[in-house]
Specification:
heterodimer; A: mainly alpha; globular; B: Rossmann fold
Chain lengths: ~260, ~260
Amino acid sequence: MRSVLRSSWPPLLVLAVVVGGWQLYVTAAGVDPTMLPSPARVVEQGWASRADLWAQTVPTLQETLLGFALSFTAAWLVAVLLDFSAAARRGLYPLLVASQTVPIVAVAPLLIIWFGFGLLPKMLVVTLTTFFPLAANLAAGFAATDREAMRLLRSLGAGRLRTFRLVRVPSAMPYFFAGLRVSITYAVVGAVFAEYAGAEAGLGIYMQAQKSAFRTDLVFAAVGVTAALSIALFGAACLLQRLVLPWERAQREERS
Amino acid sequence: MSSLLIEGVGKSFGSLEVLRDLELVVEPGEFAAVIGPSGSGKSTLFNLVSGLDRPTSGRVLVEGEPAGVASGKVAYMPQKDLLFPWRTVLDNTALGLEAQGVRRKEARARADALFADFGLDGFQKAYPSQLSGGMRQRAALLRTVVLGRPVLLLDEPFGALDSLTRTEMQLWLAQMWQRHRWTVLLVTHDIREAVLLADTVHVLSPRPATVVARVQVPPDRSRGVEDFTAPGFAATERRVLEALRGTPAVRAGVGEG
């Protein structure tokens, strides 16, 4: 806990300086709040619209979590398939890499056309943005298993499944969590973006509506909520890592 | 019946001949050491005995049966301790049993029973990163011994330790062996280690490797620290060294270490 505090004060200080400078500039120069609202105004107006903001946050969070769950499941299935089958590795992996060059900007409206304005296209956009870092890290983690360890297990007569469970899965965990931390921060942005392309509710469509109404302050407030969601999910991923991999802490303490 | 019988074994990888007409016998309760210049095919020999690989010619019999992974007769301790950082020490020592399909609870109970004997009591719940190098090796040996297999195969078990810890571990293993009389095949680069621990030291030639000398270590000794300074010990060390130096690679000065 103390280390969390120690590592979070420098970025908080930088943030305070930036926000303070912004506030000073807007007040001193008398900027039109529809152009650039002051941070104080963003907080004040955001708070005033808190019920509205919360109502829009719930669908976004739902899309994020469901889409991420889908992504998580698909990533495990694909990574395990890639690990077990050399043919799948040769046939699928290059395509997976190539798929990352497809701009989601172009795909998201198509998904709306195909699947409507409901939950599914948003889940799919979240899945598309988060799947690759998850699957690629997991597959790399499986592949990075110590070869000597594999040999030892084989000499003990362990079959492929048991070796996978006893060695490959646990040794892939640090890689997997690295991918999880990266992709979970993309997830919220993916959901917001999908809503931008067309939705009935959510932070994305809310931002768009407020922008059209020149309520720049509420756009910023929604951005703030989006950032807070991302940071909370990132924190949850870190916490999960500590729970699942208690040995990492033992190792770090030994080194320091 | 011999615990381990290696008869006329040859092994080639493509055009590379690694072992040629290798003969080696280990009797039950015997501690045998194999020493040879680097690149002389010791790890190939290991793979054959542990059943991970098959000889090109000849036979490898463990208790009369062809060596194979499935026969479950050889327990192998690799050079690296290969303790998994994500498992506690107890779970690591139970790993071998789990890999064989023993239920986790029983595997842990069987490993736990040996902790005191291996000087690891109280460290069951520690993680490997919290152990010293010597303790890690003791845990790795426990993981090997708890399998209860008739032949132990030790691949330079103390090679990665610093010199002081290594000496300590060698003396410890000598004491453990005297209590348990396991059947051991030890591969090492360390002449002193071979002479301290083994009953017979088999000296390999450079590639293609074959046994060029078998040095019997006189049995009248304590297998303790006083051995190191005994005249008989030095004489045996010298015989092993001469057998090694008789091999061309060492004469040319490339084979030490």
